[in-house]
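Action item from last week, closing it out:
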Amino acid sequence: MPGRRQFEQQIAALDALRGAPADARNEHLRKGLANKNNFVVAKAADLIREFQLQELTPDLLQAFERFFQNADKSDPQCWAKNSISRALAAFEFQDPDVFLRGMRHIQLEPVWGGQSDTAGTLRAICALALVQCRRLPEVDLLARLIDLLADEDKTVRAEVVRAVEQVGSSSASLVLRLRAVLGKDEPEVLGACYGGILRIEGVSAIPWVAEFLLSGDDSAGEAALALAATRSQKAFHVLRDRLEKAQDPWFRSVLLSAIALTRQDDAMEFLIHAVATESLDAEGAIEAIVRTVPSEELLGRLKKLTAENTRLARVLAEHQSS
């Protein structure tokens, strides 16, 4: 199979550039970008990013353009375009039109029973890269990103939420608030909204995000984890209060985990108390504490509390070994 052998040789030659003198790399990488095989081009682009060879940006742009032509045949799975866009993003390339083109691209490829869009990763990469284009006014940037909040690919939607968060302004936070209020999306997308709002606005947004705990569903679980990530006393109080009213065992376990993840001293004492009193939440509290990789002192307290309770001692041992 000469074609296969040639491909393997080309990949090996590119890998060998890691040990080559710096001044000998550029010409080989230019040839790699000019290769017809999209995987070879992707490999070359990844190395250009790794070596920080910004002087090869014109070659990256030329290859990027080439793989939009007859894209499903020239660049199946968007391997080349993905790697090239990552390199351009790493170099903080400033022409927004390049990334806007990637954000608009849909590439339908044949799959069993129909067609599938393989350009979701490309759209997500380019959306995040667009945020760093300083010549694009914020209002235009947000307008472009908002278009992708309705993307059919949930991964793209989640990454676009993170891109909006990176804008970091009050306008960006309002966009995320609106998306969260509209709901009707995958929990991870809504969770990215909750987390983005809290990172932009800080603890002042905790009461607003706390409203999403009321549903007790997967999205509420995402809200709980977003609140926990603030690692604040205020978040602990909100989560504790919601736990008092929660009935569903699954959601109670999520709240216990979130309480532990706030890493507040009062939160850990709250969980320790649940174990010490052998409450209905004792097992969940043990699991929540162990998942945070507790200090030796805290772990010692847990062992002492469970020493005379066979059931709780077994739960602690199981979670320590998992």
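Closing note: The longest helix spans residues 187-201.
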